[in-house]
Amino acid sequence: MARLGSREHAGAQRDFAVACHLAPGHKPSLLLAKAHYLEDDKAAAEDVFREMHRSAAPEDKTEAALWIAAVYNALRDWQKGLEWTEELGDRPLADRLRGFFYCRLGRMEDALVAGRRAIARDGGDLLAHRILAAALLEDVRSGPGPRRAGRLPELLRVSSAALELDPDGAAAQGIVALAAAEVNQALVRFLRRKTMTTQGMTRALWARALAVLAGATAGAQEGFFDEVERIDVGMGGGNCCISVSAGERALYFGHYEGSPRNNPDIYVMTRTSRDDPFGPARPIPDLNTPFEDWVGPGSLSVDGREIYLVTNRPGGSGGMDIWVARFNVPGDPQGGFHDIEPLGEDLFPGVNTTGRESRPHISRDGDRLYFERDPGSQHHVAARDGASGGPVLLNGQIGRPFAWASISADEKTVFWGQFGDQFRPGGYGSGDIWMATRESVLDDFGRPAPFDPATVVNPGPRVNTASYENMQTLTADWPASGSGLYFLREGTNYRATWHPDCNGNHLDDGDEIESGEARDTDQNGVPDECEALPPAPAFRRGAARGETAVDISDGIRSLNSLFLGAEAPPCPDAADADDSGALDLTDAVRIFGYLFLGAPPPPEPGPLACGPDPSEDALDCASFPACP
Description:
The chain is α+β, with helices and mostly antiparallel strands. Helices cover 34% and strands 18% of the residues. The longest helix is centred in the N-terminal third of the chain and has 28 residues, at 170-197.
């Protein structure tokens, strides 16, 4: 026991093996199996646990069965775990564990059926309630909208029942808290729809309720994530290191069976458009070897011509190195690859060493390569052709931990996962994804600019949960409306949709612009109120000639332009004397009426003072020299 407590697992194995020989029984066998398990010899642990389950007394069989399930979960071999439940004579326990493995495999409907059946057998079964609540929670988080809303009442009911069965249990309390958060998110989505589809006082009331409720679940910097979608790769084992092509028509990832030491390979899933589901995962023969092969969070060049890999195959500098491969057909993995080689002095010198380099992320313009290097998964950036004098360390700028990082297309935002067990305070559970920004990519001396520690923020509860999230990658169009963050949650691929919200009103900026609720004069996708736009051109209303005083010649200029083919006024906004948004006969009538009949002057800015057009119309003002 002392060896086990001090993590001397190999010595503990020897001691417990002797104990099993001298005093056969459940307890020594359990300790021996635990020692194997903690030493990462899961196959040996499985053998001992199975023998325990076969020979155990009835009161000990459940504990042995749960340990066998833990082994399959640790191995991420959930299909084998599901098959093993068929061997169990204990049907309630089999249903509980089947619900767990179905949930891990993403088969939510089957998980819900198994969980409900287990609860129907025994309404006081706490584990069954927790497993069913977890399946419902997963379905609510990643299912389509109508199904998600329909699951919420059952989620609340089951999670509340779990808390009643175990009032002081941290797991039950956590499930209830997560269920309440999902109800809150559902209400936020409902209020967003109402705010965008109503007008007047009703809209103001919905918007006020949205501001109050969404404030408790605020998103990340100038936006929020929602619509989290689970992406099923259809395989057991573990996934790692996602990379997505521009346009999101190809998703690359590393995959391994059992332990990561089983030489992972690179797989790809493709689709014809962003709105279609991904096809089945398939390995890429040109990129895979009998050694370890991975991709990084931004391994694909934006032009679709290169992919950067991480591998320990022969021919590198030693350890894990970063290699590059060129597509035979740009962007098409089925077309094969050529010139597969390690980074050298002619490309990104100084990147590969005898240590471990990983997580390559190529910039949009292809001039900078971000990557990590052990020890400590320290993040670096290197310039093409060694322009910066070699890789530059980026760690320490936003504080540890800073690992498993991915960079936005404009290189001004970094997302990163937790490193080891060094969890940053203020998260949502285990390892979370975090983000930070910087104002510019390079400083005044041409060196990589630091990320600002003051901007560190958690992307929110749609991305981060009580589970472990990491290995994230951004789509090439981030932070545009509808762009995405791909990431892993407990080894399963997900995508979260980004909604820009620069004015903090909890509505997508793109939706506001499209509906007319926000102006976007320069049509860059950002509401005018969120950016400092150049001042609107100043003019005098009615001065069609572009001169200081408004007189009869301005009315004549308008008529000549309309009916005699004369040159158009230099400032159409100024010639629009009645501010109708169009140039027509009524403009000349308005000018003459003002000058000779005592009619009111033309609308703002009026005929005397210089000023911008307060009205939104299709007219502009190319030139009005008389106004500064």
